């Protein structure tokens, strides 16, 4: 049965979707069967993988609403070595439609159960907010959440709010919810602030912060415009090396021997 990790941070622009895509791409590079679930109505993960979000007919929204089975609408790209359950702007209406539904917080978790044994890793990319969609993502995080944190001061304020949300979900919906790891992103080693933020985050999560740190990188920023992850766009860049290191760290801590296809 595959591992299920949810990437979450209610603050936008912290590299959450970028991390979901590039971590997934490197896990695929190392021989893992990877599914990325786009749980964001902005559908950035979908667009960044070269898919027109306005052309998505069946995706996350239809799965959560119960009008379509998840397996039939997963897209696989053998060149990128990653599968995707795409999103579309229609997903923005899901929260309103689900609010009166029974077990509304468990819709994604229940949908994933039927396909979880087909993948080694399922990565769920949540929206940059703390709403019902995000709660669905947290409840579905069987093996924990990954929290990308931008190496800037304001990221620390958002981290405190996120910790409170995780505690509420543990208390009311999913007691086993845990933090799998914290990914420091957009790191600029030339500034004292970036190092201070890393040290401060480590006070909150003394053992959960990944050793791999993602730098600020023009190549990482450019890759989505070409519809490919950094593995394909600029594999020799510093950003690619950082995500490669992150994937290797995740695999090693999960006890998986690295192979390449």
Explain what you see.
The protein has 261 residues and is α/β, with parallel strands linked by helices. It has 11 helices and 7 strands. It has helices at residues 16-29, 44-48, 60-65, 94-98, 107-113, 132-139, 153-172, 192-204, 218-222, 230-233, 238-253; strands spanning 3-7, 34-38, 75-77, 82-85, 121-125, 145-150, 179-185. It has a 7-stranded mixed sheet, with helices on both faces. Helix 1 packs across helix 11 (238-253). It is globular and about 50 Å long. The model has no long low-confidence stretch (mean pLDDT 92).
Helix content: 25-40%
CATH architecture: 3-Layer(aba) Sandwich
Rounded to the nearest angstrom, the radius of gyration is 17 Å
CATH topology: Rossmann fold
Number of strands: 7
Average predicted local confidence, pLDDT: 92
Number of domains: 1
| Low-confidence regions | none
Please identify which CATH superfamily we are dealing with. Answer: P-loop containing nucleotide triphosphate hydrolases
Overall geometric form: globular
Helix-strand category: alpha/beta
The first-to-last residue Cα distance is 21 Å
**The level-1 CATH class:** Alpha Beta
Name the strands of the widest sheet in spatial order.
3-4-2-5-1-6-7
Q: Could you state the order of secondary-structure elements as H and E?
A: EHEHHEEHHEHEHEHHHH
> Largest sheet, described in full?
7 strands, mixed
Please give the count of helices.
11
Strand share of the residues? 5-15%
């Amino acid at each position: 049965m595959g591992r299920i990790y949810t990437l979450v941070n209610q603050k936008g622009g912290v590299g959450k979707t970028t991390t979901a895509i590039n971590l997934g791409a490197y896990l695929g590079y190392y021989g893992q069967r990877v599914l990325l679930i786009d749980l964001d109505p902005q559908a950035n993960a979908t667009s960044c993988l070269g898919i027109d979000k306005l052309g998505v007919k069946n995706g996350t929204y239809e799965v959560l609403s119960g009008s379509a089975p998840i397996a039939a609408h997963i897209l696989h790209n053998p060149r990128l070595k990653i599968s995707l359950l795409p999103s579309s702007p229609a997903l923005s209406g899901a929260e309103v439609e689900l609010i009166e539904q029974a077990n509304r917080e468990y819709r994604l978790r229940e949908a994933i159960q039927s396909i979880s044994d087909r993948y080694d890793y399922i990565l769920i990319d949540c929206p940059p907010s703390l709403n019902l969609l995000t709660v669905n993502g947290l409840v579905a995080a069987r093996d924990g959440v990954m929290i990308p944190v931008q190496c800037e001061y304001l990221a620390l304020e958002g981290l405190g709010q996120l910790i409170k949300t995780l505690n509420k979900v543990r208390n009311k919906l999913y007691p086993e919810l845990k933090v799998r790891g914290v990914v420091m992103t957009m790191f600029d080693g030339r500034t004292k602030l970036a190092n201070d933020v890393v040290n401060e985050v480590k006070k909150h999560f003394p053992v959960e912060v990944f050793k791999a740190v993602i730098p600020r990188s023009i190549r990482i920023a450019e890759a989505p415009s070409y519809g490919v992850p950094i593995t394909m766009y600029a594999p020799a860049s510093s950003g690619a090396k950082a995500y490669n290191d992150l994937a290797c760290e995740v695999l090693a801590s999960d006890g998986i021997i690295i192979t390449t296809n």
